[in-house]
Specification:
Blueprint (H helix, E strand, L loop, with lengths): L5 E6 H8 L14 H17 L5 E12 L3 E15 L2 E5 L20
Parallel strand pairs: 1-3
Antiparallel strand pairs: 2-3, 3-4
Length: 112
């Protein structure tokens, strides 16, 4: 009898954060609360998404599954938007910044 392969599920975000982990374990932030930043980010996403045309789909769930010898890897995520173009599709990831841009010296790799 063939043994059922274990399925490993991970979100795109958790996978990228794991692969690009660095820095210190202290994740406290100064200034704006996470809740305020998340609410502002949601409003910004919605404003941008409403301006897109009829070939735009907002908040699209995506799944990639790859079978290996001993397990199946399932990576799940959501695209902020997908725009259908004449030569294919453009997957959009919207990023906002809730701080003064002058304070940013370089991009955060997990967001590239």
């Amino acid at each position: 009898m063939e043994q059922k392969k274990k399925k490993i599920r991970i979100s795109v975000r958790n996978l990228v954060e794991f692969l690009l982990r660095s820095g210190d374990l202290d994740n406290r932030r100064g200034g704006v609360s996470d809740k305020d930043a998340m609410q502002a980010g949601t409003r910004a996403h919605q404003r941008i998404q409403k301006k897109m045309g009829p070939f735009y789909q907002a908040e699209v769930s995506l799944v990639f599954e790859k079978e290996y010898e001993n397990f199946i890897l399932r990576v799940e995520g959501r695209a902020d938007g997908i725009l259908e173009e004449s030569d294919g599709f453009m997957v959009e990831e919207i990023k906002g910044v809730f701080r003064e841009l002058e304070g940013l010296e370089e991009p955060v790799p997990v967001h590239l």
